[in-house]
Amino acid sequence: MAEAIDPSTLTILMSGELNEAQIAQIRAVAPGADIRYFSSRADLEREIEQADVVAGSVSPDGLAKAARLRWVQSWAAGTNEILFPEMVASPVTVTSCASNGAIPLAEHAVMLMLMLSRDAPRWLKNQAESRWERWYHPELTGLTCGIIGLGFSGQDLALKLKAFHMRVIGIRRTPRPTPNVDEVLPPERLHDLLGQSDFVVMTAPRTPDTRGMLGEAEFRAMQPTAYYVCFSRGGIADDAALLRALHQGWIAGAGLDAHSQEPLPPDSPFWTAPNTIITPHNGATTPLTRQRGVDIFVENLGHYLKGEPLRNVVDKEAGY
User: Fold this and answer.
1) Residue 304's pLDDT band (cuts 50, 70, 90)
2) Which listed site, 60, 233, 234, 306, has its alpha carbon 20 to 30 Å from 319?
3) Residue 54: which of 88, 82, 21, 15 has the closest Cα?
């Protein structure tokens, strides 16, 4: 355990979408600290030379000027954008808000699964054209969902899927019994999961190990009636392979909230890919997600001042 820190010696710079109550909540845990809030990272980095702690994000140029910086609390659950080579090589501790968006992300996945399986875009098109058309559609009951990544979001999704009477299987780097998951498989059995699943949901972070893990062989291993859903990070599925899978009918469709390039360019072929629903990586854009992130920072700041271990410390080499 490290020594306690006198708050009056700290300069804490924050950016991001914080309201007055949240800023006051943060100030209350570190009385006497110099806490400054900025509306943008660019504004924050004009004063970053003075920062001991940053809550928000830091660019390579900002890090180069941040001689006193010891800790960055990211507001994101996934920290890909902040783990540039200079940050990975630095002694700065990075913590994440992992778990803050698990609930809405799981909700978003269920929404996409229902929309895809019931062909909700067809209903919306018919409503716009005042057309009354009825058709048979499946239920989620009895279907199998394969979850790649059984972290906070994956486990919350498994809980929700049990309410839909689904069979749930999952991939975990170190397999162990997991609540609401019928079978946990190691990564080397990925193709087994793909072949059994009516829905494959990607919840894993993008790391050197997961980047491009779904390619042509993996999409061909899925059932032609199965759907791919991704809300964690783009780039885990190879874009070219996924587009071929959609256009050539290797899979039935996709629900994509995370994309390899964001914002998704207007000319991206994913906008018009068959049986594909696109959302702009905002499955977890909720007030409660932000509040849970603030709560994590407040808890961590309390630990930091007492010299205690921090929550959600990122393994900068592993990427999460």
Assistant:
1) very high
2) 306
3) 15
CATH code, residues 7-99+287-306: 3.40.50.720
Domain covering 102-278 in this structure, CATH number: 3.40.50.720
Question: Per residue in 22-45, pLDDT tens?
Answer: 999 999 999 999 999 999 999 999
Q: For the chain, what percentages of helix, strand and coil (3-state, to nearest 5) are there?
A: 40, 15, 45
- Containing H/E element for 161? helix 152-163
> Please, where in the chain does CATH 3.40.50.720 lie?
7-99+287-306, 102-278
Q: What angle do CA 171, 176, 222 make, to 5 degrees?
A: 20
Structure tokens at 1: 């355990």
pTM for the structure as a whole: 0.93
The residue type at 248: Q
Give the whole-angstrom CA distance, residue 320 versus residue 308: 20
pLDDT at 1 over 80: no
As a whole number of angstroms, the distance between CA 191 and CA 236 comes to 15
The residue type found at 67 is: A
Condensed to tens digits (0 to 9), the pLDDT of residues 183-212 reads 999 999 999 999 999 999 999 999 888 999
Q: Work out the number of other CB atoms within 10 angstroms of the CB of residue 80.
A: 17
Q: Which residues are catalytic?
A: 233, 262, 281
CA dihedral for 93, 94, 97, 102, sign (positive or negative): negative
Could you report the per-residue pLDDT of 90-144, keeping only the tens digit for each? Answer: 999 999 999 999 999 999 999 999 999 999 999 999 999 999 999 999 999 999 9
